[in-house]
Amino acid sequence: MNLALRIARRELRGGLRGFRIFLACLALGVAAIAAVGSVREAIQSGLTREGATILGGDAEMSFTYRFATEDERAFMAGVAAQVSETVDFRSMVVVDRAGGPERGLTQVRGVDGAYPLYGTVGLDPAIPLEDALATTDRPGAVMDRLLVDRLALEVGDVFRLGTQEFQLRAVLTEEPDGASGGFGLGPRTIVTLEGLEGSGLLSPGTLFDSQYRLALPPGSDLGALEAEARARFEDTGLRWRDSRNGAPGVQEFVDRIGAFLVLVGLAGLAVGGVGVSAAVRAYLDGKVETIAILKTLGAEGRTIFAAYFAQVGLLTLVGLALGLTLGAAIPFAIAPLLSAQLPVPLAISVYPGPLAEAALYGALTALIFTLWPLARTEQVRAAALFRDASGPTRAWPRPVWLALTVALAVTLVGLATWLSGIERLALGTAGGILGSLLLLALAARGIRALTRRLARSRALRGRTALRTALGAVGGPGSEATSVVLSLGLGLAVLAAVGQIDSNLRAAIQRDLPTVAPTYFFVDIQPDQLQPFLDRVTTDPAVSRVDTAPMLRGVITRINGQRAEDVAGDHWVIRGDRGLTYTTTAPPAEEIVAGSWWPDDYAGPPLIAFAAEEAGEIGLTLGDRITVNVLGRDIEAEIAALREVSFENAGIGFVVTMSQNALAGAPHTYIATVYAEEEAEAAILRDVAGAAPNITAIRVRDALDQVADALRSLAAATSYGAAATLVTGFIVLIGAAAAGERGRVFEAAVMKTLGAARGRILLSFALRSAILGAAAGAVAILAGALGGWAVMTFVMDTSYTFEPVSAVAIILGGALATLLAGLAFALRPLAARPALVLRARD
């Protein structure tokens, strides 16, 4: 090793020529992964640090459809220094105008005098919240600016919630616990609990959540308190949260999108690996004479391998250091932008964990992509000094090196799968990257074979520039493989993102509106159902009306065991779920297994469970489910499994119970109305006018929110794909630079044979455009396959090829390669044939 290290040190005295692309590719890939991981860690740290403020208390106990009982209140008062009671539900804001009432959907929060326990409510004008909500001639209210602007309200204006009038006292600019509420269909309005008493919006059966935020004494053991609360009130439908995870929905989303972007970053690192491999191969090709001399002097193959491995290893450490430095600095640079976009606090800092993960990925990638070209140093013979050998033989390395490369690749995929926490997606991404690399490598070989054949075609005789370009693409020393692999993989990621994005948009904007209802009406009281039906079913513009009784409950036990112990973290047992009952059996084709109960059934409670979700949890016919409704446990046996579709935004319930199980509980009805667009306003006006407590949710507005979320996700993924593409472009520049020497010789020969500069430049341009278009075409195929796989197996929906982005990617690939090629065409065009040809003697 001493001899190998001395050789490596002397080799590196010549500088980093030939390794700039190596360093750029490695540093950029590592920086992307480190930056994404650091931002994710900053968000998680911010959520942890500000958990109490985000939640609104050190801990929270919440209930559905009801307020806390005396026992529950006594427990909270005994453990907390202070308790704040709030209620959360959806309703309609009504503003009386000269031309008739104007309405807007809002998420209402009723609060007591202790709210907020932590943090400060931001108001414009800046007045105390107590003054803004105080009752003078009518209760006060504050409202989110979005809804204020939408309804053209001014401070001092009057509006109604249900049957109660409120006066707008200020605009809500900051809600300290806003991120803890999760997804909401309307902007926030805050009023007092006392002000809601005369609104008629909290009648028995109305859908609302009551929340009790606890300010605990310093040093309280949150884990012990949670265990005690669950033990005492396990069967009352209690939901517990605390400051250890104040916004679980936000944190889960951040974890998932962060892990996904790391996987996209790995695709960029794979592209960089292609550049790393090409740079090492080109460097070693230029060291054939040196290696041959060393072998002539008696150096063993392992000594030479160790010498060049040490060089690459040292440069890998430099590249990792550059990438980690850049990745750690990026979050600081974009912190203001992130803070403005995210509803949670950021704790920007240097986090060792994400940096170590990025360094590990980078080191493994560099090792995987450099091991193969380094192993080929063994194949250089001393006889290369006496023969016109342009580089090492192209034979495969020994089996031991192939096995080690495969083992390292498996290790990298395993680490990515384990660290991401989304095993299926990680394995799919790894398979997609490896499959794309294989497809691109095969395509590069096919392109070279095809262009060689076309260059000899009689049909192209007389087209010198085109034949020369085709011959250069298919001939020895062609950069086709490097260009197609590097640019193709970057374009493939971008193509897949484009295909997925366009298909999701089509599903929302084209498919769903044809089957989705116009309105979702909730909180219809039993005595209001028939007048409601009389209004909507007699309207000729209404094509369909569906109704169902609606309750909410928490699945607490499965076959006598805690639901979490059986179902894990499945979404069905997370929080409360919608429940319904019916006496009428659905169509026979919807019943997957078992049988429905008779219309006059009066026996023990029975359940029909959604078949897909039952399969995911592991439920079968005969299993017993305990559901807590309004603090009362109802145990029922699964009598049927039914097909439930949620794709059309209509009424769908995971749990349907027999009528005798739920009919006695206070409940309301929900309804979906399918109507023509011109009738929407009249239906809303008549229904809300007759029953102010009924809340109407316009499905198109809800779909727009989903579309906005998908656009944000697609944008974030596009940024990751763009980083991959930038890496590919760097590799492309490296390939063009590496081929400059060969193009100098080609230009000299062509000038000697009488070719003008314009024809030589045209040949170079055609060569670059052909390679770029070929890379783009193969990328479209790989991206289309990736898009189809995601839409079919992840999104569980249909896939349609989108041609516009495909054409753009092919043109973009051709343009990128053309620009890179032309950037390195000036020196060959300026070369003097005599000097070049004499140097080859």
TrEMBL record:
Keyword Transmembrane helix part of the UniProt annotation: yes
Sequence ranges assigned to domain ABC3 transporter permease C-terminal in this UniProt record: 264-376, 722-828
The MacB-like periplasmic core domain, residue ranges: 23-231
Pfam families in the cross-refs: FtsX, MacB_PCD
Keywords (A to Z) from UniProt: Cell membrane, Membrane, Transmembrane, Transmembrane helix
Name assigned to this protein: FtsX-like permease family protein
Primary location recorded for the protein, binned into one broad class: membrane
Keyword Nucleotide-binding carried by entry: no
Protein topology in the membrane: Multi-pass membrane protein
